[in-house]
Design goal:
It is a single chain. This protein has 171 residues and is mainly α. Helices cover 75% and strands 0% of the residues. The protein is built from 6 helices and no strands.
C-alpha cells in the first residue's frame, strides 16, 4: 500500500495543522494576554493574532515548516526517521502548554522555541547521523523529503535557540 498525498490534500492538512497550532497556542495565551503583547518574538504571545503580525516571510516559513512535517507522515509507516519527525511534531504541538502550565510559566514564543528544540532534536540527530538524503537505497521522494526536513529543522533552530535563550534569561 502506497501512502501519498496530492497537492490539494497537503494544503488541506497544512491548513488543519495551522488551525490546530493556532488554537492550542491561543488557549494558553488567554492567561498571559494582559501581560504580554501578541507577536512572534521570544517574549510575545504567538497565537492567531501574533501569527498575523509576523512578517510575510515568517508566515510563509511556518507554512513550509508545517507542510514538511505533514509530508513526513506519508513516509512514517516505512521509515523510522519519518516517525521520529512526526512524533516530534505531535509532541511539540500537544505537550507544550501542559509542561509550561505545570511550571507556572507563560507560554510565549520562547517557550515554543524550547519545545521545538526538545521535541525535534531526536529527529534531527537521526537525519544527520543516518543521512538518508545521501543514501541511494531510498526512494528519491524520501531522500528529497529528508533533505528538506533536515534543512527545515536546522534553519528553525537558528531562531529557536536565540528565542529560547531570551525566554530562559527573562525568567
Amino acid at each position: 500500500m502506497k501512502w501519498t498525498l496530492g497537492f490539494k490534500q497537503m494544503i488541506h492538512y497544512t491548513k488543519f495543522a495551522l488551525l490546530l497550532l493556532s488554537t492550542l497556542i491561543s488557549v494558553s495565551a488567554i492567561a498571559a494576554e494582559t501581560e504580554y503583547a501578541h507577536g512572534h518574538g521570544a517574549l510575545e504571545i504567538f497565537d492567531g493574532a501574533g501569527f498575523l503580525e509576523t512578517p510575510l516571510w515568517v508566515q510563509i516559513w511556518v507554512v513550509l515548516l508545517l507542510s514538511t512535517f505533514v509530508v513526513g507522515f506519508c513516509f512514517a509507516i516505512k521509515h523510522p526517521i519519518a516517525r521520529w519527525s512526526s512524533a516530534g511534531l505531535i509532541a511539540s504541538l500537544t505537550s507544550g502548554h501542559a509542561v509550561f502550565d505545570l511550571l507556572g510559566l507563560p507560554f510565549l514564543g520562547g517557550s515554543i522555541a524550547i519545545m521545538h528544540i526538545v521535541c525535534w532534536t531526536p529527529a534531527l540527530w537521526f537525519l544527520l547521523s543516518k543521512r538518508p538524503f545521501l543514501d541511494t537505497h531510498y526512494s528519491n521522494a524520501f531522500r528529497l523529503w529528508s533533505a528538506v526536513m533536515t534543512f527545515v529543522i536546522l534553519f528553525s533552530f537558528v531562531f529557536d535557540i536565540k528565542d529560547a535563550a531570551i525566554y530562559i534569561s527573562h525568567f
